[in-house]
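Exercise 7 asks you to align residues with tokens for two separate proteins.
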Amino acid sequence: MSDSPSARLIAAANEALAARDGSGREIALRRLGALDKLRLFKAAGPALAQNAPYLGMAMLAASVTAIEGVPVPYPTNEAQIEAIVARLGDEGIAAVAAALAPSGAEDENLRDRAGN
């Protein structure tokens, strides 16, 4: 496999991640791609897609692929987004956010490429 920047980005995007929340639940997740985000905007609807706090939480929820080994389908409407958020609760959302947060090295690499 090529070690080009685009190949590394694709591999990172497809990487399966896991988090454990404060209750000890194992949460499987993945990083959302452009098409996933576009579909999430559609699922949230026009008003909620413009609501940054709602959309941020929805993106965390949509990143979840399983909780305790039970598959979580990708949400296709507002009710499904909210159902995932309800299943995760505060502890689950916090664990997903921490798992998806860029590492310090990734932040530094992004700043370097941006010229900051």
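Second protein for Exercise 7:
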Amino acid sequence: MMVIVIGGSGFIGSYLVEELLNEGYEVLVTGRNKGIQKHYEEIGIKFLEFDLTKEEDYKKLPTENVDGVILLAGMLPANVEEENVEDYFKVNVLGTIKVLEYCRKNNIKKLISTTSYADVRKSWDAEVALKEEEPRNFLYTGDHAIYVISKNAASDVMEYYNETYGMQCAAFRLPPVYGVGPHSTIYVNGKLYKTGIQTFIDNAKAGNPIEIWGDPEIKRDIVYVKDVAKAFVLALKSDKTKGLYNMTSGTQVTLKEQVETVIKLFSKEDNKSEIIYRKDKKNNTPSFIFDISKAKRDFGYEPKYLPFEKMMIDYKEELEKGRFDFLVESRIK
């Protein structure tokens, strides 16, 4: 059984490829990060340099014996220094259409992609777990606005192919995904920042104080990358997979719990970090939680890395093992 992972040279893709191999799949990886090509070739995986926006690149892909395609390639605000509306649609919408056409022409029924949890940003709630049926309700400002609009359009086109051509397209709505990878810094509205979790870890290792801005009891639904990778495999195997899925943990962890866990795992016993509460500083992300019952019902998704401490124990073990150093080192500058 062959699976093509378009955009498999990135963070989630690298974990997914490992999970697919463990499940006995033959894997073809495409991407633009040539730095990771050597790693894949060394473990016997074929890697194709591929741009999903270029029609001619699709001629490189196999035309038979493909069981499914997982589309991870896309334009994300975290990787964009200067926003260009046209580029978001060229990559996320027109690129998706080209992948859909490749699948349709070659009788590949299953295509699984990703979408943004910010499509319901204005409906986020601390106590109400949002279902897939929740009406779209997003912000038209900020660096996620055009990204969300482009991803919504791509998801709608996928649903069109489901209804018109009998395909089994699915979109995984992802929240923050934790795991070892090349994302210690991200762009926010065009400016480069160290991520919150990376800041917590760095300060904990050094024994430095850790600040929590705003309400320390803000609760967020965070998922571990290995749970996401497993979900892709489960979804590929199920004939029920179709449409939008909340691909989260279905649970919440507070900012305070995150920091306390990081200090417990990463600080030295004789040099524990102190928590400093800065309620005078604004925290721009409110509480949210999503309902994962549809994914449980359709393909048996059950997050394994819960509670949050279990997630971070594995995170730390992977850091220490260095198994994903190749991913960090291969990042395109």
